[in-house]
Write a structure and sequence with these properties.
Layout lengths: L11 H7 L17 E2 L2 E6 L2 E7 L8 E6 L2 E8 L17 E7 L11 E5 L2 E7 L15
Parallel strand pairs: 1-6
Antiparallel strand pairs: 2-3, 3-8, 4-5, 5-6, 7-8
Length: about 140
């Protein structure tokens, strides 16, 4: 009797998992001086546009927020810590300059805008300008 050997090709999931095996995976080095886009959530509620950005390790004095016309610009700077020369050092945390520019979906009232920073989360609230708020129009019957 002859044995039949069937060779199956690995599935896409198996190939993907193989990429993360210790022998295959190598940490990527990214220059600490490049500017990175910060991660954020942005959403609209009744009369406000709210932006929340995670900026762990950033100090308040290293934040710069500008509203220029209809563009919101957020910049942050996170200083690198002193590297230890005594032993092996792997750096995977981000340092340097972070930025994001976005446009709210409606005109905002910059004079009433506010920002707070707590536990590494920046929250910016941009209220709708009066002309952007919906108004109820009453229908008159003649």
């Amino acid at each position: 009797m002859t044995a039949l050997v069937v060779r199956r090709s690995p599935s896409l999931i198996e190939e993907f998992e193989r990429m993360f095996e210790p022998t295959f995976y190598r940490p990527l080095y990214v220059s600490r001086e490049c500017r990175r886009m910060m991660s954020l959530d942005a959403y609209e509620i009744k009369d406000e546009f709210i932006v929340k950005a995670e900026l762990p390790g950033v100090q308040k004095e290293n934040l710069d927020i500008k509203l220029d016309g209809d563009m919101l610009q957020i910049e942050a700077q996170k200083k690198a810590e002193e590297e230890t020369k005594d032993h092996s050092y792997i750096c995977e945390r981000d340092f340097g300059s972070f930025y994001r520019t976005l446009s709210p979906p409606f005109p905002v009232d910059g004079d009433k805008a506010s920002a707070s920073f707590e536990n590494g989360v920046l929250e910016i609230r941009l209220p709708k300008a009066e002309e952007a708020k919906s108004k109820h129009i009453e229908v008159k019957v003649k």
